[in-house]
Design brief:
361 residues, mainly alpha, 12 helices
């Protein structure tokens, strides 16, 4: 099938999901206001007023509507060519579980340990479905790794990405803005691989995220501001983890070997993951609980230099794009991946050190 036809299905998925999210969001906002479902201001948070918090609850239904619409146009209805495998069903079940615990946490609250246990169970679905990090593509001189190493590494990375997307959601437009860039990148990459389903899924979720972004970023103007909540950030993290691990995996039966696939997946999730690792280790070194909330995330540090919330958003999105461009450029010039990641760590550390030195509060 020509690339032009594939692009049509991608556009349908994106626009249908976007329209569904935009049209449905006012009803979610009204429901939150009616039932008092607000994110209350606290010392560690940057907002000063109670804001509805279930905006991310539309991510999964919007993505589903967009994906199904595109597939109906693609296949002209139900097709024998479209088969749902057991592994696909398990991954969908994992996404639904993550979504539901996010909803429950937004509505009534959940203990961090309970959420972590459920996240761990859903993370195990990946290697059980033969989806894992099985090749380090030369990182530290390693390539194919044994399954008993691949399993725990995969589960750790999934939990890292899921919680990184959850914890980066601290200012208007940040989690949604980063997710939008990541999802559109994966949508483009999967389309180039000749995998329309994963491209459609990526752009469907991107449409839902963009619909939310309008209300989250501009909602203050018309009194319709809403936050994402855990239902959105956890689901985003799970889908992004899935797309990342599937893209980098070496499996000749699915995709041909790509030398840069690991680096691409790493680059797209690097910034939020670096942040959550730094914050967790910093808390541990200060003798605090690694999961104890504070104001040490990168967006807090940048805002402490005197920048506004929106200026901070632009800075972080620019940093994300800069790292991606830098890594791609270094790879094109033949720099080894281990050295590229070392450069990333050094530059990120310098960025944090510079930001701390510029703090005005």
């Amino acid at each position: 099938m020509s690339s032009n036809f594939q692009t049509i299905y991608i556009i349908i998925a994106f626009l249908v999901s976007l329209a569904f999210a935009v049209v449905s969001m006012p009803f979610v906002i009204a429901m939150c206001k009616k039932n008092g479902l607000y994110d209350q201001p606290e010392a560690r948070k940057v907002h000063q007023f109670a804001i509805p918090r279930l905006g991310g609850s539309l991510f999964m239904p919007s993505m589903a509507v967009g994906t199904v619409s595109a597939l109906i146009f693609k296949y002209g209805g139900v097709s024998n060519d479209f088969v749902v495998s057991l592994s696909t069903a398990m991954m969908a079940a994992g996404g639904i579980m993550i979504y539901l615990i996010g909803i429950l946490d937004d509505l009534k609250g959940m203990k961090a340990m309970h959420k972590f246990i459920i996240q761990s169970v859903t993370a195990l679905f990946f290697p059980v479905c033969n989806l894992m990090i099985n090749d380090l593509h030369g990182l530290f001189g390693l390539h194919v790794i044994p399954i008993y190493v691949a399993y725990p590494i995969t589960v750790f990375v999934i939990l890292l990405i899921v919680n990184a997307m959850n914890l980066i959601d601290g200012i208007d437009g940040l989690a949604s803005g980063l997710s939008l860039l990541i999802l559109c990148s994966f949508g483009y990459l999967y389309n180039n691989l000749g995998s329309p389903l994963f491209s459609i899924i990526s752009f469907s979720l991107a449409g839902a995220v963009l619909g939310f972004f309008f209300y989250n970023y501009f909602g203050k103007i018309n009194g319709r501001k809403i936050f994402m909540g855990d239902s959105g950030s956890l689901f985003l993290g799970y889908v992004i983890a899935y797309l990342s691990i599937k893209y980098q995996m070496t499996n000749w039966e699915v995709f041909e070997y790509r030398e840069n696939s690991f680096l691409i997946s790493f680059s797209l999730v690097m910034l939020p993951c670096f942040d959550v690792i730094r914050v967790a280790l910093g808390r541990k070194m200060r003798g605090k609980d690694m999961f104890e909330p504070d104001k040490t995330h990168v967006h807090h540090l940048i805002m402490a230099t005197g920048l506004s919330m929106h200026q901070t958003l632009y800075v972080i999105l620019s940093i994300f794009v800069s790292f991606c461009v830098l890594n791609y450029g270094l790879f094109v010039f033949g720099v080894k991946m281990s050295l590229i990641i070392f450069v990333d760590v050094v530059l990120y550390s310098l960025l944090i050190a510079f930001t701390n030195s510029m703090r005005t509060e």
